Amino acid sequence: MANLTYIGTRDQSIRATASQAILRGICPDGGLYIPEVIPAMGKSLEELSKLSYQELAYEVLSLFLDFTEDELKACINGAYDEKFDTKEIAPVVQKGDAFFLELFHGRTLAFKDMALSILPYFMKTAAKREGIDKEIVILTATSGDTGKAALEGFSGVEGTKIIVFFPEDGVSPVQKLQMTTQEGENTCVVGILGNFDDAQSAVKSIFTDKALGEELEEKGYLFSSANSINIGRLVPQIVYYFHAYLEGVKQGALNMGEEINFTVPTGNFGDILAGWYAMKMGLPVGHFVCASNDNKVLYDFFRTGTYDRNREFHVTVSPSMDILISSNLERLLSHMAGQNTTKEDMARLSKDGKYSVTITEKKISGEFATENETYGAIKGFYEETGYVMDTHTAVAYAAYQKYKVASNDTRPMVIVSTASPYKFTKDVMMALDEKYAKDDPFALMHVLEKTSGVSIPEPIQGIEHRPILHKNVCERDKIKEFVKGYLL
Ligand SMILES: *Cc1c(COP(=O)(O)O)cnc(C)c1O
């Protein structure tokens, strides 16, 4: 059990235990919680290589959380079980010139399950430790995958309610149905007439609205977040970077201690930041490629040091990465430049939509893939290897190809594979052959099954026949009113 203190990205006098940080989700001043010191991994790679995924998770998480050994083990065993369709939890498969870290074997077929299957356990444990008897209301903005993974995690969890906001016209048909057919008395799903950034900004402003917070507290509610602004979302993601490394060694790609690279398809900068934490804990990482789609605000940032969200927003075939305000970058900035600078930069971001910094972290660089390059990667790689990637993974793979040419870096590359191709069946099939453009996305699942040789995952079998249980639609500037109306 760790005594790690969490501090605010914009004010280091804001301090919290892990339990408090998980329950609050975000700092009172709108900043995010970061560990005051990034803990070193105490065990050697050799020792870690003998552990199961669950045991490895324990070694990593115990350094970040203030839970007892029994509490933490109960969280891990509750989360990483048969809900995943493979015993390895996160298989690493070698195909072509890369290793694919498949993070999509959970119930909702995206990597968000890796953290959101355990977050409800964290919340309950944290609430118990803090003596909280209020009903916890999880507010979540989603670009498509977080929403379903959070619903799945919190549905039916006693003492919690969950409200999810998704862009009504910005998610795939499967993603939308996954959310609108969600069962569970304590779940609420709302389509908003806006994009992910609108939803995320509204949710953040609800968290920092003191008057509303007090009003709800009187009624017995406490808000928290299932977005990757919550530190409880980030720490479980550190585990699979260690896991991927150790698998790479087991599969003979590198010797213990040698460096490995990761390409991470990035939106809110949560996944890649977890990898960066793993590196800071001592994992031998050579380089991170931060992969973007046409919303390449991070690519430009890593090239120039200027973050500028004043640009056109693109709806792409990798919707979970359609984000112009990558919240977790704030954490990296604060680790690099400190609280005062970060506070000023975030004020600039909210006022002018941009800021500039000197990037001292040289182990991350940006690449991006256009829509054509993403389609091309799916098709080309399928023809070469028979392996079918989803659109987000394909953005990462295309970015890796550009990095490879530009860098001459020959260290082994892990492509962080964030979703099952079934989640984006229509685009995946259209990438393979334009003739599928007119076909029904659900009928195409059967074609994808034949093409890929991978069975349709059980959680989405027959999803198109399930009853729609959530029909709420909300204007983007009415989100606060909606939440009040729903709860009060
Ligand atoms: C959320 C998501 C991403 C982006 O991850 P971040 O942590 O937001 O950077 C990439 N791919 C898929 C499939 C996702 O669901």
UniProtKB/TrEMBL annotation:
Its EC number is 4.2.3.1. The keyword Lyase applies. It comes from Anaerotignum neopropionicum. Belongs to the threonine synthase family. InterPro entries: Thr_synth_N (IPR029144), Thr_synth_N_sf (IPR037158), Thr_synthase-like (IPR004450), TrpB-like_PALP (IPR001926), TrpB-like_PALP_sf (IPR036052). One of its GO terms (biological process) is threonine biosynthetic process. Pfam families: PALP, Thr_synth_N. Transmembrane segments: none annotated. One of its GO terms (cellular component) is cytoplasm. The modification N6-(pyridoxal phosphate)lysine is found at K112. Keywords: Lyase, Pyridoxal phosphate. This is Threonine synthase. Residues 5-80 form the Threonine synthase N-terminal domain. It comes from the Bacteria. Residues 101-416 form the Tryptophan synthase beta chain-like PALP domain. It is an enzyme of class 4 (lyase). GO terms for molecular function: threonine synthase activity. Its cofactor is pyridoxal 5'-phosphate. The keyword Lyase applies.
